[in-house]
Write a structure and sequence with these properties.
Rossmann fold, 47% helix, globular, 2 domains, eight-stranded mixed sheet, N-(1-d-carboxylethyl)-l-norvaline Dehydrogenase, domain 2, alpha/beta
């Protein structure tokens, strides 16, 4: 299949690697040529690193490298079988993108969002045919993490849902059908992991390193602040804000001033060489 990926950031790259190693062709779209060049270089580097570590066959890697193309024009998505959006977690930006995609792609193309918090019903309302739309929420790093939330909107067709499930399984993932509720399954639960940790720090009960150390001592592979740095402090905050608004300002989902301060300071995590920690 031809998999279109809109957005050349961290999530887009991970989805691309998973798709390429499963034998699909990938077409990247982004408005910035520099972002596309960086994404292609990063994907190729990770594929080759996997070969060096014995995790990927060299021939598969060579074929995968030939199966990547990039474009700053959405017209490149015209032949895609599935287009997965992985852009900023802003409803207006996503609506504008999907409105254009519907004009470019054929009627059989499945349009999917990697959104982690915005309702599928809200995203699909801009489309003339919302039955072709579903959520395909991967987790970072998308080429490694096995879980994929498949979200069926109120107007998503059963055929589209089945195709999305089959696609995820073909990538070696474990698809789980999630209800179209704010945050779906994982992010609805995870908000408390992030928010409560930040409240503890804001109240002076513990430092950021202490919270992370304690949580890892309980069995978590990463502490909440380490995880936010990996995901992107700004991205994580956008998700928190979106979920808080969709739950009609439920107090337990209230965004943290601590996180907002880091975002305002440009400390967005590993991608900026600094977040809650320095890298």
């Amino acid at each position: 299949m031809i998999i279109g990926i809109c957005g050349a950031g961290t999530m887009g790259r991970g989805i691309a690697i998973a798709s390429l190693t499963a034998g699909h062709r990938v077409v990247f779209f982004d408005i910035a040529e520099q972002a596309l060049e960086a994404a292609r270089s990063n994907v190729v580097a990770q594929l080759r690193k996997a070969v060096e570590k014995g995790r990927l066959d060299a021939e598969v890697c060579s074929i995968a490298e030939l199966n990547i193309s990039t474009s700053t024009s959405l017209n490149a998505m015209a032949e895609a079988n599935i287009v997965i959006e992985a852009v900023a977690e802003k409803l207006d930006i996503k609506h504008a993108l999907f409105t254009e995609l519907e004009n470019v792609c054929g009627p059989e193309t499945i349009l999917a969002s990697n959104t982690s918090s915005i309702s599928i019903a809200s995203l699909a309302r801009c489309l003339r045919d919302p039955s072709r739309f579903a959520g395909l929420h991967f987790f970072n790093p998308a080429h490694i993490m096995k879980l994929v939330e498949v979200i069926k909107g109120p107007r998503t067709s059963d055929a589209v849902l089945d195709t999305c499930i089959a696609f995820a399984k073909g990538l070696g993932k474990t698809p789980v059908i999630a209800a179209d509720a704010p945050g779906f399954i994982v992010n609805r639960i995870a908000r408390n992991y992030y928010n409560e940790s930040q409240r503890i720090v804001m109240e002076g009960a513990a430092t950021i390193p202490q919270v992370d150390t304690l949580m890892k001592g309980l069995g978590f592979k990463m502490g909440p602040f380490e995880l936010m740095d990996l995901i992107g402090v700004d991205v994580n905050l956008d998700v928190t804000k979106s979920q808080w608004e969709q739950f009609f300002h439920e107090p337990r989902f209230t965004p943290s001033l601590l996180q907002q301060q880091y975002v305002d300071a440009g400390l967005h995590g590993k991608k900026t060489d600094g977040g809650f920690y320095r890298y």
